[in-house]
Design brief:
Helices cover 42% and strands 17% of the residues. The protein has 389 residues and is α/β, with parallel strands linked by helices. The protein has an eight-stranded mixed β-sheet, with helices on both faces. A six-stranded parallel β-sheet has the order 11-10-9-12-13-14, sandwiched between helices. Helix 9 (248-257) links the parallel strand 10 (237-242) and strand 11 (264-267). The longest helix has 17 residues, at 82-98. The mean pLDDT is 94.
Length: 389
């Protein structure tokens, strides 16, 4: 049986995107191994397990360095990235052992592992670079540094995948070759067969109030503080925020500062397969990315498609990929990404206008037939058919 080895720089517990790709490859007859990582505080995770039929995940443990080495790292005597470098070496060793027919590196922080495993051997194997982000234009990233690194490493890559056409065009402007867009759409499913999570009961939300939902990472540039500012003036609705991230505790503190404890509720991140139960409970979904860099500007936003799949009307930023879907399919409203006032007005409009909201909701039923992984996975399969060892 043909083998694919994938690399991810996470624990592969909630990585629905990579799991979808791996399962699609099993449909082509590949056995897939995903090499992930495991931190010392994640010892409860299995080192090896089956993620899906034909998909094995292998998690090498990030090494715990001696206390004397840790103290020297903290003091700046030794490089703070040493633990990550050791993890990368473990992943490289596992990758070489696989001798897979194709190697597949997800994002720039696993590309070295892919190159070492696929190319630094007598019989070189094909290597796919699957970039989920615009690496050269992200928050706190140096364009010059990342550009030089990515440009050099691309010399060893056989094929590049990015999220959408806007990002493919950007990549071509930088590196002269256009990669293949493979969109991060939700798999197609029947939301009517999903039992809704009892959000109203849990938070005592009356029937005459609408449920506004944000689900996703709580990071910089997601417009979440502006969302709280906007919600301070909203009437007839509650805001549910599901997820975690670096800004979660700051957001909780800020919502208390605004006096929104009774109108904004936080829920920890839930497993991906369970998330649709929460999404179904919402009346309105929010995806208010800020235009802080090209990575955000060009995002397709998988959350947008999760809202559509669950028949939830959407409010999204006027950014090219997001706006194109919302406006062409008429599944919601778009607002300027920096406008708290515009966001507030859009939320209040959909809260008050039942007819418009239901119209958008009805349109999602057609849009989901177009924007789903069941269709999009064929693009990934065509890439693999073109790859020859």
């Amino acid at each position: 049986m043909k083998q694919v080895t994938m690399f991810v720089w996470n624990n592969f517990v909630n990585d629905a995107r990579v799991l979808r790709e791996a399962v699609a490859l099993t449909e082509m007859g590949y056995a897939v191994t995903v090499i992930a990582k495991k931190e010392m505080d994640e010892l409860h995770l299995k080192s090896v397990e089956t993620a899906a039929p034909g998909v094995i995940v292998n998690r090498p443990l990030k090494p715990e360095l001696p206390k004397c080495v840790q103290s020297r790292i903290k003091s700046g005597v030794l490089n703070k990235h040493i633990p990550n470098m050791l993890t990368m070496l473990k992943m490289m060793a596992l990758g070489r052992q696989q001798d897979a027919d194709v190697y597949h590196a997800h994002d720039l922080n696993t590309l070295l592992q892919g190159i070492f495993s696929a190319k630094l051997r007598r019989n070189r194997n094909p290597l796919i670079y699957d970039s989920h982000e615009v690496q050269t234009s992200r928050t706190h990233y140096s364009f010059e540094k990342i550009y030089m690194i990515e440009k050099f490493l691309l010399k060893f890559v056989d094929h590049v995948i990015v999220e959408n056409d806007t990002r493919a065009d950007y990549h071509r402007r930088l590196y002269k070759e256009r990669p293949t867009p493979v969109h991060n759409y939700s798999e197609l499913y029947d939301i009517e067969a999903v039992e809704a999570y009892p959000i109203r009961e849990e938070f005592d939300i009356p029937d005459n109030e609408k449920v506004v939902l944000y689900q996703g990472g709580m990071q910089e540039g997601r417009g979440l503080f502006k969302l709280l500012d906007a919600f301070k003036g909203i009437e007839g609705a509650r805001l549910i925020m599901i997820g975690d991230g670096k800004e979660r505790l700051n957001l909780i503190d800020y919502h208390k500062e605004l006096g929104l404890e009774d109108r904004v509720h936080f829920i920890q991140r839930v497993p991906y397969k369970e998330l649709r139960r929460y999404t179904k409970s919402a009346d309105i979904g929010i995806q208010f990315l800020e235009n802080t860099n090209f990575n955000h500007y060009s995002a397709s936003s998988n959350k947008l498609f999760e809202y559509i799949m669950a028949h939830v009307s959407v409010i999204g930023s006027k950014l090219p990929e997001i706006e194109a879907v919302i406006e062409s399919e008429q599944v919601g409203l778009t607002v300027e990404p920096e406008s708290t006032k515009g966001l507030k007005e859009a939320i209040q409009k959909l809260v008050d206008d039942d007819k418009l909201r239901e119209q958008f909701r009805g349109n999602t039923k057609q849009a989901k037939q177009k924007y789903n992984w069941d269709n999009e996975k064929d693009v990934l399969k065509r890439v693999y058919k073109r790859i020859k060892k």
